[in-house]
Amino acid sequence: MTEKRYSGRVFDAAALEQIRAILRTQAGASRQQLSYRVCEALEWRKPDGSLKDMSCRVALLGCIATG
């Protein structure tokens, strides 16, 4: 599968690789720090402009970072 969908967003192969690169290069970071970096890199934000941090954390646990 070359793309995944989570919380209304489609992550194509390039976005998934970008996420995996962030996870590899920031191995010592907390889940919160990682989710902030991923949200910022992909411009994943709520309608009010804040980062979709909690959605990203859940996605990182199972949906996006694996497979």
Overview of this protein structure:
- The chain has 67 residues and is mainly alpha-helical.
- The protein is 54% helix and 9% strand.
- The protein has helices at 13-25, 31-42, 53-63; strands spanning 4-6, 9-11.
- The chain has a two-stranded antiparallel ribbon with strand order 1-2.
- A hairpin with a 2-residue loop joins β1 and β2 (9-11).
- α1 (13-25) runs antiparallel to α2 and α2 (31-42) packs across α3.
Brief overview:
Helix 1 (13-25) packs antiparallel against helix 2 (31-42) and helix 2 (31-42) packs across helix 3.
Strand order of the largest sheet: 1-2
* Average of the residue pLDDT scores: 87
Low-pLDDT segments: none
Give the structural class: mainly alpha
> How many β-strand runs?
2
Coarse shape: globular
The CA-CA distance between the termini, in Å, is: 8 Å
Helix content: 40-55%
Order of helices and strands: EEHHH
| Strand fraction | 5-15%
Q: How would you sum up the major sheet?
A: 2 strands, antiparallel
